[in-house]
Each structure stands twice: as C-alpha cells, then as structure tokens.
Amino acid sequence: MKDRRSRKYKQGGQRSGRAGQDSRKKQGAAVEGIGVRQAGQGTGSRSASKKVLTAPVQKNDQVELEIIGLTHDGEGVGRVEGFTLFVQGALPGETVRAHVLKVKKQYGYAKMIERLQNSPNRVDIEHPAHYYGGCQLQHLAYGEQLRWKRQHVVDVLERIGKFEVAQEDEGASEGLTLEEHDSFAGDHTSSSSDSEAAEKPEAELDGKHSIAEGTVISTQDSSRGVSIHDEADNTDEDKCEKSGYAIKVHPTIGMDNPWRYRNKSQMPIGADDKTGELIGGYYVKASHRIIDTDVSLIQHEMHDEAMRVVKQVVRKYGIIPYDEESHHGLLRHVIMRVGFRTKELMVVLVTNGDKLPYQTEIVNELVQALPNLKSICQNVNTKRTNVIMGDKTRVLWGEEYITDYIGDIEFKISARSFYQVNPVQTEVLYDKAVEYAGLTGEETVIDAYCGIGTISLFLAKKAKRVYGVEIVEEAIQDARRNAELNGIEHVEFAVGAAEVVIPQWKEQGIEADVIVVDPPRKGCDPALLDTMLAMRPERIVYVSCNPSTLARDLRILADGGYAVKEVQPVDMFPHTSHVECCVSLVRK
Ligand SMILES: C[S@@+](CC[C@H](N)C(=O)[O-])C[C@H]1O[C@@H](n2cnc3c(N)ncnc32)[C@H](O)[C@@H]1O
C-alpha cells in the first residue's frame, strides 16, 4: 500500500492577479482549478458534471508546506498540490511540517508539528496561554500585525466592496514607527489570551465557527496572502461598478504599549476533568475545554487578582461549576470590569439559576479581599446557549455601575451595557469619528447603535443636537444618566432598533446633517441603510468592528450616492485578528 505519510510539498503556485482585480467569475474558476484532484481524470468516461473530486491529502497525513498567507482569523494558509490547508500558528514565509486534521472538499485543517523555516516577523511567546483564547496573532511582531490589519481592510474593500483603494502611504503608523512597535513587541516574551471575541456570542466569533461550512476560498493573493470569502461576500458583481475614485486607507493606528489594554474580562468556569475542582480561565481555541488561569497579559492587572480571589472564595463555599453538556451546575462565567482612570472594579457572577448559596459570606469575602470593588452583581442565565449573559441582573453589593472616563467625559457603566474594551484606543477612535463628522456647532446628528451614549456625548460637544438610538434598555438608561452627569442637555436617547426608530424620526420631520453608525458585527440592517439614503445627510461616519460587513454596507451607500473618502483602521484589539475602522463618507 502506498505510504501517504511525510510527503513533502511545495506551494502550488496557483496565484491569480493582484487583489482588487479579481471577479466572481475568475474566483469561481480559480477555486475549481485548485485544491481538488479529479478522480477518473483523463479517462474520458465521465461527463464534467459527474466528476468526483478528491483532495490530494487525507486526514492524518503529514505534510510539509510553505505558508503563503493568513486568513482573516490569523491562521496560516498553505497549499499542497494546490489544495488549501489552514495551519494555526504558522506565518507567511514559513515552511512547516503539519499533521492533517480534517479534509473538506476545497480546503482542510492541519496542526503544525514543526517549523522548518521561521518567519523573520515571528516573536517568541513563552506564556502557555498563548495558544488559547482569542490572541491569534501574538506570535507576529506588532508592527506586522498593524500592517496585516490594514491589508485585510484593503482586501475586503476591494473584494467585497469592489472599491479601488489608493496605494499605501509610505511610512509608519501614527505616533510610533513600525520599527518601534516591533522592538517593543519583541521585548514581551510572555503572553496571554482573550480578545474582543469575549464581547460577542461565541457562535459568532469562536474560532471553530469562523470558517463556515461551504465557505469559498479564493486564490487571490494580495501582498499579505490569501482571502477567504465569508458571509458578507455576497455582492453581485454585475451591480458593482468601480467607484471612479480611490479610497484612502490609512496605516492602522496602533498602541504605544499593546499589552494590558482590556477593561473587561469574561472568564468561563468549569470543572477539572480529573479532580472535578472548579476551574476558570480561557477556552482552548476551537473547543470548550477550559484552561485554568487567572492571568492574561492583555487584560488589566486588577482582573488577574480579582479572578484569583473569586475562584478561591467560590471553591471555599462549594459552588458547583456549570457543566455545558449536562446543563447542570451553577457558576458559568466570571465577568470583571475596571475603570482605567477610576480603578473602580465590578465583578459579575453569571449563574445557571437565581439562588447563590452562601451569598452573604461570598460577598463579604470578596469585599474584604478586593479593596477597589465598587459593585458585585449576579446575572442569571439559565439557557443552553453560548451567549454569556442572561436578561436578569441583580446587584448583590454596592452600586449597579462603575464609573470611568473617555477623554474628559464621565461614564457610568452597568453590567450588561456595551462599553468599548480598550479605553486608550477608544479615545483615538472617537476623536476620528468626531473629525470625520466635520461639526461646526450647527449640525443635527444621529448616533445609531449608540450603546451608553459614548460617541453621542463626544459628538454633542460640537453639535447643535444629537439623537442616539440603542436596542438595550439598560444602555439607554446609562446614556441618559451619562448625559445628565456631564451636564449635556442637547442629546436625546431612544430605546429600540435603529432600523425602526430612525424611520420614525424621519416621519416626524427630524433631519440629520450627519449620521454616525457603529453597528454590531453583522453590520447595518438594510432598512436602516435605505433610511439613511432617503434622509440624505451631508456626511456619514461608519464605525465598524467587522471589515467584511463594513465593505458590504459601504458598497450600498456608495451606490446610493455617497463617496467613501477615507478609512482609518484603529487597533482596538492588539494580538487578535480583529480590526476596527472609522470611515468618512460624503454625499456626492
Ligand atoms: C459596536 S456597539 C457600539 C456601541 C457604542 N457606539 C460604543 O461605541 O460604545 C453596537 C451597539 O449596537 C446595539 N445594537 C445591536 N443591534 C441594534 C439595533 N438593531 N438597533 C440599535 N442598536 C443595536 C448593541 O446593543 C450595542 O450597544
């Protein structure tokens, strides 16, 4: 029998043209041309439509391959006889030996066993939690992360949005040169996990869901590698004419210190497989196995201590960890929030049931051990779901919120309200949003998806009137309280879906000079985009945490009469594959 193991492969060389010059037709043809071997090929006995397609690798094969790109999830991409394999932890320019884990029709997954050739952009990571949680890019030098994020934005604008993008500026990202970023990042040999993924329902962001069944893989190589089409890549080529101008995509604005930047951690709780003891920390990538740890180098230091204390106290009182499979047990997650400026700490215990045994004792011990505690809450989530929080929250001790500042504006933040997790970069992002809004003091502004009114209050400093709309009721309560707290009277907030409330405002005769949108990952609702086009504001500012849905929505706005002027990527989530963008659109 033929030994299929330890076969050595080189890159298939199936590159198509430069990013942006592709077309759906070309991609389709290219996909057919790579990654599959046709059984019975050359026999002439089958019609083309009946050909059986077989991958050139099989599960459990060991292969050597060159890595030629990164997916939007930060996984290395290589080819074996033209067949695409995703290899977690591998970087472009590396040659690796890998064990094939899974083979699908057009692509497969492999686990890196050994690096035969290292990328010069690789940095050492010593912390064992490196491979867990959402820090997919920690092994890539920080300056390269910033370049990769910009290139990812460029790729989706070209591929999904069908936009022309201007050549990259020469030089470095704002504030710090890329070389300085790299040398800083290189000094950090230990690391951790957790990412923006913790902000979202896991089904949406968990690595194991990130490359959907049936995902099309394009052979289009940009300067950074290979593109994967995702759910937003549904643009009809025929409708997508070129814009007639080139969008400027600026270098990603990075952090001077890209560590310890998170103000919020959400740590899953479970039982140790062997001892049954309560553990908590991070999920191993693409699984629900928990690594027991208190430390993450991207979260605020106070969270490490809080997590250590919470686990110690709940273990002492015999609180039973939640078991996902049986849906039994009580404690599901520990959520911690800290005000970077105020150092106020909130701990939320997410439980599978209303009753918390030994509540008084647990609360007293936490208060004794954690001097900065301002709030202890219990959130009840009894559903079988990956969504972390349930609908019911009660305060066990202290206030129902903590306080923090962005710039000179004070915010009260309650347990369930959305609040940006990286306060340093949030200020950078919001300043950019205000700049793109181009306010003179005379404008009426709508802030759609306003959360606790953070952007609204920034905008209000320079606008005549601001209307904010948000779907979570507690967030709007926070927003109103925040406006009052800061003595800002010319803002008005409404609870509801932006796609329902804004059309009502239009009916009532409210006219906006500027509309700012900051939607969740799925992007803007089509009804909202229609309303925005009907309202015809002079400027639109689009803040987005998902470049794919951003590109899709920008195409609709561009076709509806807006020029997409500038895109500013901001690194809100260093060491993860996530990138935030602020976009300036102007009515043509
Ligand atoms: C990315 S966050 C932005 C929040 C805020 N702009 C900020 O910077 O803190 C998106 C917000 O949209 C809210 N949201 C989700 N779907 C919505 C909808 N259909 N209408 C209004 N708000 C929605 C979420 O609750 C969340 O607060």
TrEMBL record:
BP-aspect Gene Ontology terms: rRNA base methylation
Annotated stretches, region: Disordered: 1-53, 183-243
Keyword Repressor: no
Ranges of residues in domain TRAM: 56-114
UniProt keyword list: 4Fe-4S, Iron, Iron-sulfur, Metal-binding, Methyltransferase, S-adenosyl-L-methionine, Transferase
Active site (catalytic residues): 545 (nucleophile), 545
Keyword S-adenosyl-L-methionine: yes
PROSITE patterns, alphabetized: SAM_MT_RNA_M5U (PS51687), TRAM (PS50926), TRMA_1 (PS01230), TRMA_2 (PS01231)
An example molecular function term from Gene Ontology annotations: rRNA (uridine-C5-)-methyltransferase activity
Highest taxon in the source lineage: Bacteria
Compositional bias (Polar residues): 216-225
Segments of skewed composition (Basic residues): 1-10
InterPro entries listed in its UniProt record: MeTrfase_TrmA_AS, MeTrfase_TrmA_CS, NA-bd_OB-fold, SAM-dependent_MTases_sf, TRAM_dom, U5_MeTrfase_fam
UniProt: S-adenosyl-L-methionine binding residues: 420, 449, 470, 518
Biased composition (Basic and acidic residues): 197-211, 227-242
Family under the similarity heading: Belongs to the class I-like SAM-binding methyltransferase superfamily. RNA M5U methyltransferase family.
Protein name per Swiss-Prot or TrEMBL: 23S rRNA m(5)U-1939 methyltransferase
Source organism of this protein record: Paenibacillus aquistagni
Species lineage: Bacteria, Bacillati, Bacillota, Bacilli, Bacillales
